[in-house]
C-alpha cells in the first residue's frame, strides 16, 4: 500500500486575500478601538460616576475601579485604534468585556442573548492579544511588539 502526499489546494484568489488581509486587521482594530472609546467617553467625563455599579459587581473600592474602568475603555480604545501597546490594551479590554458578559448573563439573568454582543467583542479583543496590532500598527512601525 502506498501513501501519496497531498498538497493543499491554493484558492485562485489567494493573492487577493493576502493583499487585503492586513487591511481587514486594521479595520477590525480601528472599529474595536473606536467602539471602546465611545463607551469610555462618558465615563472619562465623570470618572467617579460608576462607583455604585462597579461595587455592585464586587469590585471594591469603587473609587479605584470606577476611574480604572473609564481609563481602560477610553485610553485602551485609543491604544487599540492606533495600535500602540496593542496586546496589553486588548487584554485589559478583554477583561472588562468578560465582566460585562458576567453582568448580563448572571447578574441580570439575560443569558446568552444579553451577553452575545460582549462575547463577540471579547473574541475581537482576544484576537489582538494573540496576534498583536498587525502590519499597520504603531507597534509594528517602531518594532516593539509586546
Automatic annotation (TrEMBL):
GO terms for cellular component: plasma membrane. InterPro entries: DoxX (IPR032808), DoxX-like_oxidoreductase (IPR051907). Keywords: Cell membrane, Membrane, Transmembrane, Transmembrane helix. The keyword Aminoacyl-tRNA synthetase does not apply. The keyword Repeat does not apply. Belongs to the DoxX family. This is DoxX family protein.
Amino acid at each position: 500500500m502506498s501513501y501519496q502526499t497531498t498538497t493543499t489546494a491554493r484558492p485562485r484568489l489567494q493573492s487577493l486575500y493576502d493583499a487585503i488581509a492586513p487591511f481587514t486587521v486594521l479595520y477590525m482594530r480601528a472599529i474595536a478601538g473606536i467602539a471602546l472609546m465611545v463607551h469610555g467617553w462618558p465615563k472619562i467625563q465623570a470618572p467617579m460616576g460608576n462607583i455604585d455599579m462597579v461595587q455592585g459587581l464586587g469590585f471594591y473600592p469603587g473609587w479605584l475601579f470606577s476611574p480604572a474602568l473609564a481609563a481602560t475603555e477610553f485610553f485602551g480604545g485609543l491604544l487599540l485604534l492606533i495600535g500602540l501597546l496593542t496586546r496589553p490594551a486588548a487584554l485589559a479590554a478583554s477583561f472588562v468585556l468578560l465582566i460585562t458578559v458576567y453582568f448580563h448573563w448572571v447578574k441580570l439573568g439575560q443569558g446568552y442573548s444579553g451577553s452575545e454582543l460582549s462575547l463577540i467583542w471579547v473574541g475581537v479583543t482576544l484576537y489582538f492579544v494573540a496576534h498583536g496590532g498587525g502590519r499597520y500598527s504603531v507597534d509594528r512601525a517602531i518594532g516593539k511588539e509586546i
